[in-house]
Amino acid sequence: MAERRATMKDVARASGVSPATVSFVLNETPGQTIPAETGDRVRAAAVALGYQPHGVARALREGRSRVVLLGIGGLRGGRSLQGFVRGMSAELRTQGYGLLVYPGPSTDPGHADLVRDLRPHAVIDLAEIYAARTAADDGGWTDGLAAHTMTQLAHLVDRGHRSIAFAIPAEPDLDGLAALRAKLAEEAGRRLGIGALALVSIPESPLGAREAVGRLRDDFPDVTAVAAFDDEIALRLLGGLSDLGVAVPEEMAVIGFDDSSFGVSWRPTLTTVRIDGEMFGRRAARTILGTDSAHRPGSAASVIVRETT
């Protein structure tokens, strides 16, 4: 059984004073006329008992807690997001801070309640960062989402493809990320000197995916490769291609994004883009804490070449 944490009442009992007096002494509350020997006795009892103030109580005293609140909204929980959370949490722990992840949008009443009650050291809203339809303040074309999208498209161009489609989920884009990725893909295509990208929405159902792939083949017969929003969409696409008897990569190359654990299980195995989310999470934590304010470019996203390109 875990050892019980000492409370303010325990300190009060050990030092022979009231809990209110303990609070006044340990919080150094101004305007109190507590004898010096009483204060010394309270502090000694707190040390002897290993008393640590509760995080919420400390937040009330300091004005903010040692917690960082990370809102992820409706972002799809891929490997890079998991790595980002893992890296940020690990880096914050080294400085005595904790990370709280809120899965809903920042407009939720629950989010506002957390900010009010926890008084976090910082609040990060990833969904808001990626809600912009034209840009994201995440490193951009240096090492942000735009650069990762460029890595994805450049792989197809390097393989000789000039007519490329970009596949997005057919579900409602609540956080704007799919729309942003499509915009970045268009810009990456322009920078790479290829024509405009065809945009295709891939539903979750196998029948819907097959029909979407059929329309893509009918409407854009010159397309020879597809870059997908993420690995899940790439796998939907591969299912539709398989149903229609389209050979991959001979007739249609496909590249995913975010290196899910499922891509390697598909046949043919899925080429994808791997992002070091953990490194970016650690960097974000250092920026928040002011331990490394200079922007240091991170590792470029890398292509995991398998059988679909």
Can you describe this structure?
With 309 residues, the chain is an alpha/beta fold. It has helices spanning 8-15, 19-26, 36-49, 55-62, 79-94, 109-118, 126-129, 140-143, 145-158, 177-192, 206-219, 231-243, 277-289; strands spanning 67-71, 98-102, 122-125, 164-169, 198-202, 225-228, 253-255, 272-274, 302-304. It is built from 13 helices and 9 strands. A 4-stranded parallel beta sheet has the order 5-4-6-7, sandwiched between helices. The protein has a 3-stranded parallel beta sheet with strand order 2-1-3, sandwiched between helices. Helix 1 (8-15) packs across helix 3 and helix 11 (206-219) crosses helix 12 (231-243).
Specify Rg, calculated over alpha carbons. 26 Å
Across the major sheet, the strand order is 5-4-6-7
Order of helices and strands: HHHHEHEHEHHHEHEHEHEEHE
- Portion in strands: 5-15%
| Helix/sheet category | alpha/beta
| End-to-end distance | 55 Å
* Major sheet: 4 strands, parallel
Q: What characteristic shape results from the CA principal axes?
A: elongated
Question: What's the layout of helices and strands?
Answer:
Blueprint: H1 8-15, H2 19-26, H3 36-49, H4 55-62, E1 67-71, H5 79-94, E2 98-102, H6 109-118, E3 122-125, H7 126-129, H8 140-143, H9 145-158, E4 164-169, H10 177-192, E5 198-202, H11 206-219, E6 225-228, H12 231-243, E7 253-255, E8 272-274, H13 277-289, E9 302-304
Parallel strand pairs: 1-2, 1-3, 4-5, 4-6, 6-7
Antiparallel strand pairs: 8-9
Helix pairs in contact: 1-2, 1-3, 5-13, 9-10, 11-12
